[in-house]
Each structure stands twice: as structure tokens, then as C-alpha cells.
Amino acid sequence: MKTNDYLSIGEMAKINHTTVPALRLYDRMELLIPAHVDEMTGYRYYDIKQNARLDMIQYMKELGMELKEIKAILDREDVTQIESVLVTKQEAVQQKIEDLNIQKEAITRTIDSIERYRKSPKPGTLTLEYIPRRRIYAIHTGINFYEHDIDTYEMILKQLKNDLISNHLPEIYYCNAGTILKQENFEQQQFFSDTMFVFVDRHFPKPESVHTIEDGMYACIYADSFDQEKEYAQKLLEFCRKNQYQTAGDYLCEVLMEFDVFDRNQRSMFLRLQVPVTFTK
């Protein structure tokens, strides 16, 4: 045999944009066996025609297949098995895309929240704002959180988190949880609610559980303390009545920003209290 009729392992690696250790691994796995091994030196040599098999190995790796899967497929020479493995890989890739889309949307929501916080007026400011359509996932906790302090509120938040986990929903949605007070309770200033929600997006895995909050004009007041809500909700109602705004839906307590990242002892929140309104012509 003339070794100049073959490619050395280094040459084989170079022309195929791979590495010598990779080719040695393929040899040990019997995935790509050299055409010749010198008995004296142990040097590996490859036939140029083996590029076809190496091309297939590299292509299958690009499709996301593991080396063990590639070897099994090539050993069996079964096209049906190739299709079966690829269908499984396709499903896995699609799930990864969906997971990344959820993560991307969550990042966008967080950036938007920070921007709204930076541009928000000082606490106690009353405004009239247009708010676009939003999607929420809500649960009923069975506890009227207006009758309790922040410690109970923390326990209620964990109910929401546990609900997401038990329903196999991404925990990334557990952020800036808000609360809902029915329109009639808001108008009568009767603070009874056990409804807590988080904002979700079009990628949420359970669309049938999503409630849409329509866009529109909202009377709003800003607060920076959990303990201010009742006082500021009353000011919000007075603002609506003074300006002859008609409430047109449920009152929301929206958490724009949380400051736990700054290592405070208590959950610190910046809130936008809001209620949809219509106008008397």
C-alpha cells in the first residue's frame, strides 16, 4: 500500500473542517474507521471516498443528533429510522423555539415595566391614560388579601406560584403579580377580593385560561407602598366622580416594578392603580 494514495488523519481533518481528536473518537466508536492503519506507527489514513460518510455524520450532527444515534442509524442503514429520529428532533426543536419565545416576551415585558417605572409620575399623581389590550392569567386564592398584612400577601403570592408549577406552566410568568377588585366593590369602596393575576402573552401554554383586558382609557393613580392602596383607591374614585368619568370595568392594582433586587427586608413595589372609564358627552 502506498500511503500517498491516502489522506493522513491531519489532512482528513483539515479538508473537512473538523479535528484530529474528533476523527479518533469516530474511529473508537466504529463510526468512521480509517481505510488503513500503519502497523508500525499506528498512523491512521483515510480514503478520499470516505468524505461522503463523514459529510453525512457532520450533517446529522447539525440536525441535532447525538453520535450514538448517528452510529445506530448508519449501522442499520434504515431510512425509516432516520425519519423517526428526525421527527423527534423536530418536536424538540419546536419546543425549544417556543420556550425561547416565552423567554423573549418575558424580557420584553420586564424592559417595558422598567421603562414605565422610570417615566412614571411621583406617588399620589392622578392621570388619565390610554392602556393597550392585555392578557392575564388569574387565580382565586380564597383569601381576601385586603383583610391581611404583607406577610399574608406573601403567602398568597406563593399560591399563585404553586398554581403555575402544578399546572406545568412556565415559572417565568411569575412576575409583578397584580390584583383585581370587582367594579361594584370599587365603586362602593368595599375592599373584598381574592383574585390575583400575572400578565401573559400569546405564547402562554394554556390559552383557554387567559382572560383579555380590553384596551381603553383608564383613570390611574401611582403608589409606592402596599399600605397605600386603600387610601389611593379612594382618591382614584373621587377623581373619577369629580371629572364625571364613568367606571367601565374592574379595578386593577398593577405592579409596575419590584425592588427586591436591592436587598430590602420587605417586598417593595411601585404600583399603578387603575380603572377603565368612559366619558359623559
Q: What is the 3D shape?
A: rod-shaped
Main sheet attributes: strand count, strand direction, barrel closure: 9 strands, antiparallel
* Share in helix: 40-55%
The CA-CA distance between the termini, in Å, is: 99 Å
Strand content: 15-25%
- Helix/strand class: alpha+beta
Q: In angstroms, what is the radius of gyration? A: 31 Å
Q: Give the helix tally.
A: 8
Could you give the count of β-strands?
12
In N-to-C order, the SSE pattern is EHHEEHHHEEHEHEEEHEEE
Residue-averaged pLDDT: 90
Which stretches are low in confidence, meaning pLDDT under 50 for 5 or more residues running? none
Provide a quick synopsis of the model.
The protein is an alpha+beta fold and 281 residues long. The chain has eight helices and twelve strands.
